[in-house]
Amino acid sequence: MKLLSSRDGNLLSGANELSLIIYFFVLFTAAVLFSSIPFQLSVLAALMICALLSRSLRLLFPFIKFVVFFMAIVTLFSIVFGPGMGIIAVFGPIIITYSALYFSISMFLRILTSIIALNLLFIAVNPDASVAFFSRFGKKTAAALLVATRLMPMLTSEGEEIMQAFESRGVSIRKGKWRERISAVSHMVFPLVYSTLDRAVYIGEAMEVRGFPARWKQRRYSYSWADYITMGQSISILIYSIVLSLTGPGVADYYSSLSITFSMQCVYFLLLSIPFAAAVRGGIHASNTGSGIQVQLQ
Amino acid sequence: MLQIQDLEFRYSSSERNSLHVPRLSIEPRDITLICGLTGSGKTTLLRCINGLIPHYYGGVMGGHVLVDGIDTRLHSPGELSTVVGTLFQEPENQFLMLTVREEIAFGMRNAGFDETDTECRIEEIASVLGISHLLSRNIFELSSGEKQKVALASVISCGPHYVLLDEPTSQLDAPSAYSVVKLLKNLSKDMGVIVTEHRIERLKDACSRFIAMEEGSISLDADYSSLQEWYLNRGIELDGHPLSIKGEPGEEMLSVEGLSVNFGERHVLNDVSLHLREGEIAMLVGYNGSGKTTLLKSIMNFIDKEGKVSFRGVDISGEEPQYIAKKIAYLSHSPLNYLFQPSLREELHFTLKSLGSDGDSYMQDALTLLETLGLSDKIDMFPREFSCGEKELAAVASVMAGRRECLLLDEPTRGMDYLRKKNFMLKLRALSSSGVGVLMATHDYNLVKDYADTVYLLRNGRCTELSPEQLGREEV
């Protein structure tokens, strides 16, 4: 039951957990706020660089390939049937316009980048640190995140086990006719639901007997000057992005030169911060492996 | 001291009491073993002590449980967590964090320890349990024995006065179990240790007090010799072995030659060969992580492998699992994954339909199989509500329907008491007598001695054939 996480021995593992969380959150916000296609592409590039540095591409790919597949279909429909101005081509009753094309591509990139940013938040950052960070917003948030982060890997491995159980009874799940496979998968729902409920009870038991959330107390992080710079940089960009979005360039502006200038400046700044954080920390584990407090054994 | 007075408990879904304990006291700094058949109330008693009953499970509770004077009725499990620590049967179910360090710290953070104390305790406990080198590791990448130690460390980190352990050695190989028992002995110098366990032979030397439960009540509270007598009266000889029941194997049916499996750079199986004959029960033994499950799964082609697997002389190495399933049945260690239909009859129908063998003659054979496994009278019942041993047998029936001749089992007797284990093995022997070849992974030395026709020992990725007599207890 292994939680999908790529934390150790990569170029991002030296960076502080909190600065990475803030960094990915900023990228997520940027992906959601702006419509500009070049800007979205730049955010996507930044995310891909992060995925490469954290060796998360292999974990990320199986998930995003489904997103890309379904979003590509939706985008195609939107381009073909979406209303708009500036005719590109006419095929009988179908009119393809510039505005429909830009809108559809922008939406595709916006959804893709925001999903990748959120995924990296849990793949490239230690989930324990993510839970600890978000649980600052309340015990209920912490409880929900704890259950979710435990259940996800359990369900993944349980799903695999159940699939093998079905195959060992002669059921075609991975290969064969689509209709048969869909029918087989529909049968898998019941054991998976039973199993999930059982697991949820176990997790609840474990949380109860270990005193959660009686006096839930956060771990203390130790930060270096590089962390402060990275976090400060990310937060500044977040504020800058929101201001840009509110003042005009980010709103429904898919291909404007003004927005490109501003947006690209933001992204270059973000891109620069990745190698900066990794290079400065040089792969040294600090706050993510302990508080750094010296311990005297008796 | 732990004191129980007039304790009675009934689950809200049940019509009769699950527990009735008029009086019980357990001293700290002692190891007490609670044993008994499955369903005798051992786990319910532990839940009453750690406060999960009544605060988490509800139900109707009478009487009192006092842990060092704290009434569990009036204090939640969270409040009791600094006084009573609980280790569940499967450590993976109780892990809440990803790294070992954070997992050990979890309870202390909840108890309000400050950061310096938390770090000191983590280092101290890790040093005592010998897991200092694991502190920065991902929990889910550890071996079973290491996981058990980490779970124990996280339980004792808050310094409880009592530790409750629910079958702590059931999933461990002999060396890991020995190391856990040794740890318990050390712990008992500072705290009371209460253990429930079916594998009594592993704990008998460490425990000073033995409590046997039956139908929710304490049937015996004495020393080991009295416990032996108690079990003997129920037809179980704790230290001896019943008459070995061996089969008479026929022609070879399954052949594995030069099988190798690598996970990344790790060589799990290296040039493994084994042979299974008709009517034979072959047992696969080896330490946790030696590759037993991997071998069974690679025979079914669930994982990539190199080498040749043949069934009755036909190479099936490249076949899809659902086609191999027409010849070979595989049952993982989770029988519940195989049981989801409203009745056993429908489970059989499901398998026969999936295999394309849903004619009347196949169903008739499946009914004969149920008779062999002693489940005929339960054919229209919901299999998930069967007892522990019956669930395993129902899962065997559901994978064996369709005239399959070979059965691969992954630790099927895990968590079964002596009687259920014996019953299960007798049914399995009856099945093998009809010509079915069985290859079974296990950690249970007594099962190997009593029922195995052939033993395969997996060690360092290699497989060696031994006779059951050649196998030492420490190797299982």
Quick rundown:
The complex is a heterodimer of chains A (298) and B (476). Chain A is mostly helical.
3D shape of chain A: flat
Can you count the helices of chain B?
A: 15
CATH superfamily of the largest domain in chain B: P-loop containing nucleotide triphosphate hydrolases
Helix content of chain B: 25-40%
What does this structure look like?
The complex is a heterodimer of chains A (298) and B (476). Chain A has 298 residues and is mainly alpha-helical. Chain A has one domain (17-281). Chain A is 68% helix and 3% strand. Chain A has helices spanning 17-33, 37-53, 57-81, 98-123, 127-134, 139-167, 178-209, 225-247, 257-281; strands at residues 87-91, 94-97. In chain A, strands 1-2 form a two-stranded antiparallel ribbon. In chain A, β1 (87-91) and β2 (94-97) form a beta hairpin. Chain A is flat. The model of chain A is unreliable at 1-6 and 283-298 (pLDDT under 50). Chain B is an alpha/beta fold. Chain B has two domains: 2-232, P-loop containing nucleotide triphosphate hydrolases (Rossmann fold); 252-475, Rossmann fold (3-Layer(aba) Sandwich). Chain B is 32% helix and 25% strand. Chain B has 15 helices and 20 strands. In chain B, the strands form four sheets. Chain B has a six-stranded mixed β-sheet with strand order 6-7-8-3-9-10, with helices on both faces. A six-stranded mixed β-sheet of chain B has the order 16-17-18-13-19-20, sandwiched between helices. Chain B is globular, with a radius of gyration of 24 Å. Chains A and B meet through α5, α6 and α7 of A and α3, β6, α4, α5 and β16 of B.
Structural key phrases:
heterodimer; A: 298 residues; mainly alpha; 9 helices; flat; disordered N terminus; disordered C terminus; B: 476 residues; alpha/beta; Rossmann fold; 2 domains; six-stranded mixed β-sheet; 15 helices
